Amino acid sequence: MRSRPAAGGGRWVDVDPARVARWVEGFADRHGPSTCTPQEYGLLLTAPDGATAELHAPPGVPGAELYAPPGVPGAELYAPPGVPAAELHAPPGVPGAADLDGFLAAVSRPRRIGLLLARKGAVAVGIAAGAKLVVSKVDTRYVQGRTAAGGWSQQRFARRRDNQAKAAVADAVEVTVRLLLPEVPTLAALVCGGDRRAVDAVLADRRLAPLSVLRAERLLAVPEPRHAVLLAAIPAARAVHVLVRDPDPDSPVKP
Fold first, then answer.
1. Do strands 112-119 and 52-56 pair parallel, antiparallel, or not at all (unpaired)?
2. Which residues neighbour 150 within 8 Å (Cβ) at sequence distance 6 or greater?
3. Is the pTM of this model over 0.85?
4. To 5 degrees, how large is the angle CA 227–CA 233–CA 239?
5. How far is 166 from 1, CA to CA, in rounded Å?
6. Where does residue 133 rank: exposed (0-12), middle (13-18), buried (19+ CB within 10 A)?
7. Within 13 Å of residue 244, how many CA atoms lie on the same side as its CB?
């Protein structure tokens, strides 16, 4: 799990789908039995002491799959293959238990997602089936950095850098078209990472419009794309983002 400060207070915690059930149990141990409320982003846990946890579903999880429909007593119909329903079931008597069951089952279900990581002169494209990278390609091109020279030399270097950057984008587009475009019908989402402008430049190609429709809001913070970076991007793309806000120490503890 990774934790980082959140704008406006609290902290973000990235939790692997397989560990969400245990994380929820730990939250209840620390703050008391929580109520579960369905939200557009996923699920909101509210503890008796005022602590809250927003569980944001990872890209590619349809909202319709997040919650058990009325009348279903447990997670038996929602547990992914090989995962006992008992591992997904919320404690009896907890308000919103059925919602929690459905959320846990939905985020645990393996999906195929596309990955597009781009920075100046480098792109890494792949497809992840669950936690496994099944298709990948990394491409790099030299793009000259900025120069301190002035006058004519600066203009010449700027033109050269611009041409190199355009060539790098063109290469990245072709890699993406070749690897991801034919797989669009099989992909639940496209998760991008790196430099937003570089990613936008790749997806601006009209041929990639069907892929752009699948683009998730999540933008992964990654270094220069390499095969190892692409592998590390998979758990980040599949993680459940949890926004945790602790109770106000000045507020009275609720009974």
1. unpaired
2. none
3. no
4. 160
5. 38
6. middle
7. 19
pLDDT, tens digit (0-9, with 9 covering 90-100), for 11-44: 999 999 999 999 999 999 999 999 999 998 999 9
The answer to whether residues 118 and 180 touch, using CB atoms and an 8 Å cutoff, is: no
> For 103-116, what is the mean pLDDT?
94
Among residues 86, 83, 88, the alpha carbon closest in space to that of 101 is found at 88
Quote the radius of gyration of the chain (alpha carbons, Å). Answer: 22
Q: Read out DSSP for the chain?
A: -EEEE-TTSSEEEEE-GGGHHHHHHHHHHHH-S-EEEE-SSEEEEE-TTS-EEEEEPPTT--GGGSSPPTT--SSTTTPPTT--GGGTPPPTT-TTHHHHHHHHHHHHS--EEEEEEEETTEEEEEEEETTEEEEEEEEE----------HHHHHHHHHHHHHHHHHHHHHHHHHHHHHTGGGGGG-SEEEEEE-HHHHHHHHTSGGGHHHHTTEEEEEE--SS--HHHHHHHHHHHHPEEEEEEPPPTTSPPP-
Per-residue pLDDT of 152-176, as tens digits, reads: 556 666 666 566 667 778 999 999 9
Residue predicted with more confidence, 91 or 108: 108
Q: Which residue has the tokens 């639940």?
A: 188
